[in-house]
Amino acid sequence: MLMELIAILLIGALLASISELIAPALAKWVALLSLLVTLVPLYSIVVLASNIEQGGWIVDESTLWISRFNISLHLALDGLSLLLVLLTIFMGLIAVLSAWREITYRCGFFYFNLLCSLAGVIGVFCALDLFLFFVFWEVMLVPMYLMIAIWGYDNRRYAAIKFFLFTQAGGLIMLLSICALVLLHYQNSGQISFDYHDLMLHQLSEPAAFWVMLGFFIAFVIKLPIVPFHNWLPDAHTQAPTAVSVILAAILLKTGGYGLLRFALPMFPAASAQIAPYVMIIAAVSIIYGAIMAFSQQDLKRLVAYSSISHMGFVLLGCYALTPLAQQGAVLQMLAHGVSTAALFALVGAIQYRYHSRDLAQLGGLWQVIPKLSAMLLFFVIASLGMPGLGNFVAEFLVLVGSFKVNPGATIAATIGLILAAIYSLRIAQQSLFGPLKLGSSLDLDGREILMMLSMALLLIWMGLHPQPLLDLAQQSVNLLPAGAK
Amino acid sequence: MQDQYMENLLLTVVLLPLFSALVLIFAALFSVRLTKQMVAMLGVGSIAVAACCVFLIKLHFSTVAGASFSHSYANWIEVGDFKVAFGLYLDALSLVMISIITGVGLLIHLYSVGFMQKEPDFQRFFIYLNLFISAMLVLVLADNLLMLFLGWEGVGLCSYLLIGFWHQKTVNNLAANKAFIMTRIGDTGMAIGLLLMFVLLGSLDIQQVQLKASELWPLATESGMSLDLVTICCLLLLAGAVGKSGQLPLHSWLPDAMAGPTPVSALIHAATMVTAGVYLIARFHPLFNLSPLAMTLVAVIGAITLLIAATSALMQNDIKRILAYSTISQIGYMFLALGAGAYSAAVFHLMTHAFFKALLFLAAGALIYSMQHQHNIFRMGGLAKKLPFICGCFLSGCAALAALPLMSGFFSKELILEKLLEQQMYVFWAVAILGAFITALYSFKLFFVVFLGPVQQQPDSKLSSSMLIPLGVLLLLSIFGGIQPQSLIDIFASQHLLETGSIETIEIMMLFAIAVPIIGVITSWILFKKQIFGSAINSAKLRQLHQFLYTGWQVDWLYNKLFTQPFIKIARSNQEDFIDKFYLALMRLSRACHGLVNLLQNGQLRWYSASLVLAMLLAFSLINF
Over chain B, what is the mean pLDDT? Predict the structure, then answer.
């Protein structure tokens, strides 16, 4: 089922790129259609998931790929993966819709890249063979690089290369760690295996475990991103076209959090517990630093990018509090942040499409001319500052509750982030929506955009008021993780 | 059967305003045109039905002392031992609160229909107003802390939206931001309190938390003025209360919040939301009773705030700012009462204050409405004959505010003063008396300057009946509303009472307390006759003092210097992100290396052959040695 899911996207990618030869406008329809087709296997997976009582793998498929090294196409899916795969498809749809008008140059190739990178992300969320995982990690990266480098704004080359180098450096370190892990496993058991379960059973000795874990940790933390490895993100976001920003914020960052929960924490429980107190401090620093940086920005996209860094700090904090409560909060934060920040980027893109500017000093008074867009922007701004009743609040509160007992200092520092979040969020609203009108009038949201925004808004409200189904799904995976260090 | 009935009624009360807000939102989003009449019908109608439901609840609610009703409607979050549900809890305290919210709320909604008639954004106004009522009801009916927090932040959000309702003006937006951020600071303290209480007590259910707290931390003894855990919990809750209720040190947002439409000032910034802090402390009174230190602090905050705000109110020219400062000052009285353990007196004063302050604000709105948006009281004068009805409203409102005998405010304020004496808090009593004097002074200054003296500006507009009816009802309430609900006394009955001082001295002091507001009014009259109000000040020192009080003890200036500017400076100084410098340096380094290596490859045969020979020589010599 998972193979089909990825295959549909890859075939869709090929079709989209071919369809450009027939008519350029066809490509986006092909992309939309192939994303909608994925809902078929996805639906059967959800049905399976609802039938499974106890935690564990909902789908588990494996075929041998490279027998010489015992590498197999091992794809499996549990609650955590399912949530993120659902997010990926949903956000993929949003991304296609937000690119609908914006992308006119070489549409076919654009949607080819978009679908390829979505396929890569789904692969990352499902791969249980470390070699396969690494392959997918790269598959999602290269199309992203191309999309920024070809369809981005003025300074796109610089941003694309920066994005590529940072992630590639992380990927390289991870590859080293994977090789080291496999070799150590081979020395111990005399058998080469890249399989997650095999490697999990084999507990490394003290110093080796620490260094191998560090390799994974750095790769994932760059992806999240966490201060001081965050500098690729603001540049990538500001230069990327809207659809790419949406994917980047909503899904790509989540691969980092997923990696931590799937690999770094369960494979190296002792080493993780050892660094956990320090990581929580780094997370708190990241939350506050990101928020202060967000406040000082003039470029709306850059501002939202820095706020992303601040929000992802909560994910790291939650993961390394090593309590089930905080880790479930972290999972929910990934989902809620994915939706709210993607919506913000989509709206900023919509403003940019209308006014060719996203400079806070030039915007102002938009509510007077485009009230619907403004109301939507205000909604997501309020969601991102952590208003109770919306998903982000539940997530952040769970993270804080789960972390408080473990590390009150870092948790209180993170809570200060809530004040700073209010400050930079209200600055967005005040400088772009309110005050005297500085620019001319423009068209308000059309049906397509209202559909996009409303679906995301309702999703956030649902997460805020009835997060239980999501939490139950996440619980299956989180409970497999090691409990806190004693 | 009876329970089911209550469940449904309570749920209706909370959801009805929310439902009408949602209908209005979706209508706006899908460009369904609604006439102003339809919007008003929906907006006011939902509150009216909610108020009727509250009345039914009142009829059915058991009159037995200490009765309570709670019901959990749905599960919200359940992770391990962290369980939170959507549950409502009703007792005498929340019954008083929902009566005020729906009752005064209904009157103010009705008034708004007339007041906002010319406003093009009529629909948006009622969306926010209905959302606010809903959030406020959640706040006072919540049975657990997380839901209370949901309502708490919800009212804060609506307050933000309504202060900045006229968003074309930057000043209004800045005031809205200030209100939200300052209350957020308090709220964050409260959020930390929530975390702490969950970790220590293992629950967020309000009743359970207090039960467990009193088991875990028995009442501290005489030496209990220490910073123990229960005190920390109380102080964190207090932070939230102080922010929301505009008490020191987080009070300076409230005068600026007057940028919003006047009905908003009446509803949110006088009658309901700003008293949420008082409600919070009254709701958690078993917890606060465990910590003498926290109680003393509540009283101290109340006392200082009431003096600072009253003296500031004395110097204002803007009619709404006078009322705003007087709100802060009156809530200071409530905090003082809470700190003295006189919870029922505090909630009683909350109730009467809701009546007379709503009356004053609505009357001020009507005044401003008919004076072409004039806010300055010194530009008005002699309006008693022109606007007799508004004059009557102001007279009874000011009399109630000044606590003149037999007005509603009189009973509640005298009760607070009496309780202070009973608790032998003489210093606090003296402060309260001084405050009462200043209150009488500024409230009648306002009245005399606006309604007596020479005419300055002619009023023009006529008031619609939808504005007059609420004014009339509130007028009656602020005169006759001084009846303390018996149920309130009952639920706070279990207080430990200290032995009171001798009855006679108390009686004499009480008589003195009754006389002080009257003396204040007389002083105000004398000052008015001598035309001291609004006259130019000659002495430089006095002018400085006036300026100091006029700016609300220069708190804004202080905070600006202490927090705002340093924060902006820090943020601005690192706009370029210094961490990026490291990566840029890395880039330059690799470019430089690239340049160096590039020099070697210059395409000249001479250079290549020479380097070849040199390298060979080097290699041979290395091998030989």
Answer: 85
Average pLDDT estimate for A92-99:
91
Burial code (b: 16+ CB inside 10 Å, e: under 16) for B23-58 equals bbbebbbeeeebebeebbebbbebbbbbbebbeebe
Under 8 Å between Cβ of A315 and A414:
no
> How many Cα atoms sit within 13 Å of A194 on the Cβ side?
26
In the prediction, which pLDDT does B496 show? 47
3-state secondary structure (DSSP) of residue A161? helix
CA atoms within 13 A on the CB side of A382: 23
Phi, psi for B71 (deg, rounded to 5): -150, 140
pTM of the entire structure?
Answer: 0.91
Q: Pairing state of beta strands A59-66 and A71-77?
A: antiparallel
Chain B residues closer than 8 Å to A398 by CB: 77, 79, 82
Give A467 to chain B, closest Cα distance, Å: 7
Q: How many CB pairs under 8 A join A and B?
A: 126
With beta carbons under 8 A apart, name residues in chain A contacting B150.
388-389
Report how far residue A28's alpha carbon sits from residue B257's, in angstroms, rounded to the nearest whole number: 49
What's the number of domains chain A is made of?
1
Residue carrying the six token digits 């009529």: B122
Q: How far apart are CA B496 and CA B409, in angstroms?
A: 26
- The helix or strand, by DSSP H or E, that contains position B437, with its residue range, turns out to be helix B426-451
With CB atoms and an 8 Å threshold, state whether B571 touches A293. Answer: yes
**ipTM for the assembly:** 0.90
Are A416 and B188 inside 8 Å of each other by CB? yes
- The answer to whether the CB atoms of B77 and A398 lie below 8 A apart is yes
Burial of B324 (C-beta count, 10 Å sphere; 0-12/13-18/19+): buried
Interface with chain A: mutation pick from B79, B138, B161, B588, highest number of A CBs within 10 Å: B79
CA distance A425 to chain B (A): 10
Residue B310 tokens read as 């009253």
Please state, in angstroms and rounded to a whole number, the distance separating the CA atoms of residues A29 and A25: 7
Domain of A401 in residue numbering reads as 269-486
Find the angle CA(A427)-CA(A380)-CA(B579) to the nearest 5 degrees: 55
Q: What is the mean pLDDT of chain A?
A: 88
Measured CA to CA, the distance from residue A289 to residue A228 in angstroms comes to 10
Q: Using a CB cutoff of 8 Å and minimum separation of 24, what contacts does B18-24 make?
A: B18/B130, B18/B131, B18/B134, B19/B46, B20/B45, B20/B46, B20/B126, B20/B130, B21/B126, B21/B127, B21/B130, B21/B131, B21/B134, B24/B123, B24/B126, B24/B127, B24/B130
| Nearest Cα residue to A362 out of A370, A353, A352, A373 | A352
**Cross-chain Cβ contact A426/B157 below 8 Å:** no
Q: Kindly report, residue by residue over A11-47, the tens digit of the pLDDT.
A: 999 998 888 888 888 888 999 999 999 999 888 888 8
Torsion of CA B165, B167, B173, B175, to 10 degrees: -40
Read off the tokens for B210.
């207090």
- How many beta carbons lie within 10 A of that of residue B117, not counting itself? 13
Q: Tell me the backbone φ, ψ of residue A38, rounded to 5 degrees.
A: -60, -20
Are A342 and A246 spatial neighbours (Cβ–Cβ below 8 Å)? yes
The minimum CA-CA distance between B156 and chain A, rounded to whole Å, is: 10
Which helix or strand (DSSP H or E) is residue B232 part of? helix B229-244
Pairing of strands B68-79, A59-66: unpaired
CB contact under 8 A, B80 and A325: yes
Give the residue from B583, B303, B306 showing the smallest Cα distance to B439. B306
Q: Which of B128, B171, B577, B590 to mutate to test the interface with A (most CBs of A within 10 A)?
A: B577
Cα-flanking dihedrals φ and ψ of residue A215, to 5°? -60, -50
Going by pLDDT thresholds of 50, 70 and 90, the confidence category of residue B224 is low
Cβ <8 Å between B169 and A368:
no
